[in-house]
Amino acid sequence: MTEGEVRLELPASPEFLRVARMMAAGVASRLGFTLEEVDDLRIAIDELCFCLVGRSGRPGTVSIRYVMGPEGLEVEGTGHFADNANEEPRLSPLSLQILKAVTDECQVEGGPDGPTFRLLKRQRT
Amino acid sequence: MAFDPDERDDLRRKFCEYAKNHDPALREQLVTAHIGLAEYLARRFTNRGEPLDDLVQVASLGLLKAVDRFDPDRGLEFSTYATPTIVGELKRHFRDKGWAVRVPRRVQELHLRLASVVGTLSQNLGRSPTIGEIAQAASASEEDVLEAIEAGHAYRFTSLDAPSGSDDEGSLGSQLGEEDQALADSEHRVALSPLIARFPHREQMILHLRFFEGLTQSEIASRLGISQMHVSRLLARSLSQLRASAEDTA
User: Fold this and answer.
1) What are the structural domains of chain A?
2) Of all residues in chain B, what percent carry a pLDDT higher than 70?
3) Does B102-155 carry CATH code 1.10.3720.10?
4) Which residues of A touch B157 (CB under 8 A)?
5) Exposed end of chain A (fewer CB within 10 Å): N or C?
6) ipTM here
């Protein structure tokens, strides 16, 4: 773990989504993001976490890293699920469209530990 | 709400009379006679962080509507008829305010204040303010500001078969130019998902402008004549409903 990094591990359940969102907002505000940028981040985190755990949650946890880099804020989330670790997460066309509008870079993929998402939000001002 | 038989007959007679002549004095008497029901129902909503006085006022409005619409000839007890109307009014109050989960009063008050603080700051700065700037202008901590913003997004993650309509939709239609109207009717309903077609017109517009046209929340806000915070709230609500519905239809 490096300096300028925050890590969070949560139950893979929608009730804990708020915590992931609040943490993103907190880190972003520390970096001096504007209200609208913070709001974009929230939307992105919601969308990506939903992609990983769905509406009713899954057995397991989601770990999230918030990295304050030179380019902006990077967020990486990985699902550690008991039910199916090797799946390929998929975003609907609508989700992709939404994410394109609120992030600068964004991707989801399967990984050795479980499905993973990554996003980058640059600071405009 | 127990009335003795004489009172009950008297009220029934008044309801019949009121249904015919709509006499305001009679209406007043009928509302007063049943105010206990409004208070009782309002009290059931007090654990959600709203002052009881406000809730009683909302419930009274529901009661008033029920008195106006009640048809005594149908043989239903007034309380049976009025309860769902009053509860509906209370629920709508919470829905409109967005307090689906319990939010401390201090945070709620800050949330209500933020709309104007953000509006003024954006205008002065010519851009969206940072959280730090908002905190300073509102004399609050950054944490409280973040929580107050989050409070406005506190919608339950539930599927709503019919996305809640906005009461002021009618007035919106008149604000939109013909071009926007055409856009709303054809292009984006096709481009977006069929799920979005079920949203109220204003929500459809906001989703389209933000995610397909790439307008900022402030730009959408000034275009629709509402605050940026309001746009943010409506976006959060629509997206939460979309996710819920997407999963239902998957």
Assistant:
1) 4-121 (3.30.565.10)
2) 76
3) no
4) 14, 17, 55
5) N
6) 0.88
